[in-house]
Amino acid sequence: MLGRKAGVAAQLCHIFPNLFVLHCSNHRLELAVCDVLKEVGGMNHFNFFLDQLYSLYHASPKNQRELTESALSVGQRFLVIGRVLSVRWVASSERTVKAVWDSYQPLQIHFKAAAADTTRDSRERAKYKGLHDILTSVSFVANRGVMYDALSELSDLSRMLQRRDMTLDQAKRLLDRQIRVFESMVSTPGPQTQTAVEAEKKKVFRNVQLHENPRVPKINPGQFFRSLAENVRCRMTPTTSSHVSTTSPENKDSLFLKDIQVLQSDTWPTNGNIQYGDAEVRRLCERLKIEERESVSGFREYKDINASKTPAALEPLLKAVHTIAVSTSECERAFSSMNDILTDKRNSLDIKRLSNLMFVKCNGPPLGQFDAQI
C-alpha cells in the first residue's frame, strides 16, 4: 500500500501530485511495539506465556468456570483474558495484562489445584505445574510490572491518537511528550514496576510466595523503555513509508509537515522578522489550493495579536490543515460495524441499506437515546 515505487499511494501521487499521504499513526504505534519485541530479550517468553493463558481459557468453558470459582473463593471478580500484542490495538493488550495482574491470586490457585488434580492425566498436570512455576517466579512478576506500565502509557497514547478532533500538530506534541515519558522511565520506574520490585524483595505478591526460576528470562527495564522511546521516535515520524526518515530527500511530505509547524505560536521567535513564516505559508497555500495573499496577510495579523484569536483571512488555511486525518481508526471501526451487521443470517442486505445501518451505528446516538419517531 505504501511502497515508494509501486505502492498504491505512490501511484495515486502520480495522478494527483498534491496528494498528501500519511501512514496511520495507530498502525505506526503497533509497528513500533513489534520492533521492541524483536529487540528486547524476554519479551517473546512473556508474550508466549500470555498466549498460553488465552488458549487455555478461551477454548475451554470448564477452565473458565474453574477460574471463576477460584476468583470467588478469594473475593475477586473474574476478568476475561484476551490476546496480547496481536492484531488488535495496543489498548486491548493493556486490558489483558491488567486482567492477569488483578487475577494473579485466582490464577495461582487454579494452576496449583489443577496440577494436583488426580482426575487429570499426567501430561495435563505437568502442563499446569509448569504454568504455576512460571506464574510464581520473581522474573515473571517483574516483567509483568514493566509491561503493565508500558502498555498503560501506550494505551492512553493510542486512544488519544484515535480521537476525531486530533490534528497533526496536536499529534506531534503528544508523541514528543510521550517519548520524553519513556525516556524518563528508563531511570524512574512506573507505579506497577515499583510494586513488582517490592514484591521481588519480599518474595511475596498478592499473598503468593515467589521463587527464583532461571528458565524465565527477565526483561531489563532500562533497555526496554530506551528501545520503546527510540522505536516510537523512528516509527511515528509521519512520513509516507515507515522506513523512510523525514530527512530523506525522497520524502517531500517532510517539508510539508515542517511548514505546518510555523502555524504554532510556540515555534515563533521572540523578536523575529515580520516576514517570518511567510514562505512556509505560501508553500502550504500552494499545496492546499488556498488563496495565498489573504492567508499571508492573516498570518501576519495572527502574529501581531500573539495568536489570541484567529483572523478570518487565515481560517481557510487552518481548516484545511486540520482536516488531515491522523489515524484510520474510524475506518477500522466501520469495518467492524459492517461485520456485526452483515452476518451469515443477514447476508441479503443491499449496499444502500447496509451503508445506512453502518452510518447509524457509527455516528448515531446510543440506543437508549435514539428516538425512532423523529
Number-wise, the strands total 2
The neighbouring-strand order within the major sheet is: 1-2
Low-confidence stretches: 240-250
How would you name the oligomeric state of the polypeptide chains in this document? single chain
Per DSSP, the total helix count is 17
* Overall spatial form: globular
Order of helices and strands: HHHHHHHHHHEEHHHHHHH
Helix content, binned percent: 55-70%
Note down, in words, how this protein is organized.
With 374 residues, the protein is mainly alpha-helical. The protein is 60% helix and 1% strand. It is built from 17 helices and two strands. It has helices at residues 8-15, 25-39, 43-58, 61-73, 90-102, 104-115, 122-135, 138-161, 168-184, 191-202, 221-235, 253-261, 278-288, 292-304, 315-322, 329-341, 351-363, and strands at residues 204-205, 208-209. Strands 1-2 form a two-stranded antiparallel ribbon. Strand 1 (204-205) and strand 2 (208-209) form a beta hairpin. The two termini are 42 Å apart. Residues 240-250 have low confidence and may be disordered.
Index terms:
374 residues; mainly alpha; two-stranded antiparallel sheet; globular
Task: Quickly describe the structure.
The chain has 374 residues and is mainly alpha-helical. The chain has helices at residues 8-15, 25-39, 43-58, 61-73, 90-102, 104-115, 122-135, 138-161, 168-184, 191-202, 221-235, 253-261, 278-288, 292-304, 315-322, 329-341, 351-363, and strands spanning 204-205, 208-209.
